[in-house]
Amino acid sequence: MKEFLPPFFLQNLVWVPTRIFLKFFGHFEIIGFENLKNLKGKIIFVSNHSSELDPILLPASFPFLSRFSPAFYTSREKEFYDRHSFLKWLFYREWFFEIWGAYRVLVGKHDYEKSLKKHLEILNKGHSLLVFPEGEKTKDGNLLPAHGGAIYLARASQAPIVPTSIKGVFNIKLSDFIFRRARIKIIFGTPVFPLTDDYKTEIQKIMDIIAKNL
After folding, report:
1. What residue ranges in 90-188 does DSSP mark as E strands?
2. Are the C-beta atoms of 195 and 40 separated by less than 8 Å?
3. Domains annotated on the chain, with CATH
4. CA 132 – CA 94 distance, rounded (Å)
5. Interval 87-123: pLDDT, tens
6. CA 100 to CA 93: how far, in whole Å?
7. 62, 57, 93, 31: which is closest to 172 by C-alpha?
8. In the predicted model, is pLDDT for residue 175 greater than 80?
């Protein structure tokens, strides 16, 4: 798979300095990794989204050269990032997202089969995927209403969903790292296999687990 090598190389290249930085300056803690020990191949990590650090934290929480690496991601359309700031317009480019492993959801299709075609292909080739079902970062620290795309992907690919709570990064500042005030946790829940195609109900169950661990 041509998409595999760039994110695998890049995510593992930055793993050591990222992990050292997070452990020293962020008091980085990983909880519940034992919940993943019997899982192989395709996994959908469903997480809350409260910081731009979130896509960096997930691969940093895996062991070096983990079987879950690289992690692939869902991302928004380019225009979503263009409207925020010049720096995001400059650096949040589709080519950069793709070498990190992020592929955009095709919005406006009103059809998960069409909008998540690329992500289903990634799962069916045995790779892991991180989904932020809220669709954007929280502005107040509370979880936003979640979309059901992760449930569609789990049902279509027969992949388990691992509820993943990212804690301690909402409104985090550089000074929090400099003065070692940051307390960052990644909490992996027990894998879930959605039982129905009621996307709204099933994704809410996942979000309730994530919220409980925050």
Report:
1. 102-104, 128-131, 161-167, 185-188
2. no
3. 5-213 (3.40.1130.10)
4. 18
5. 455 455 566 777 888 888 877 667 899 999 999 999 9
6. 11
7. 57
8. yes
Listing from the earlier edge strand, what are the strands of the sheet with 44-47? 29-31, 185-188, 161-167, 44-47, 128-131, 71-75, 102-104
Residues 70, 7 contacting (CB under 8 angstroms): yes
Ranking 50-54, 77-81, 111-115 by mean pLDDT, the lowest is: 77-81
Confidence band for 86, pLDDT divided at 50, 70 and 90: very low
CA–CA dist 149, 156 (Å, integer): 10
Q: Please say whether the beta carbons of 195 and 163 come within 8 A.
A: no
- Give the E-state strand segments of the chain in sequence order: 29-31, 44-47, 71-75, 102-104, 128-131, 161-167, 185-188
Check if the beta carbon of residue 97 is closer than 8 Å to that of residue 130. Answer: no
Contact call for residues 192 and 209 (beta carbons, < 8 A):
yes
Rounded Cα gap, residues 128 and 67, in angstroms? 9
- Say whether pLDDT at 163 is over 90: yes
pTM of the predicted structure, to 2 decimals: 0.90
Bridge partners, residue 128, by sequence: 71
Q: Judge contact between 106 and 97, C-beta under 8 A.
A: no
Average pLDDT, the chain: 89
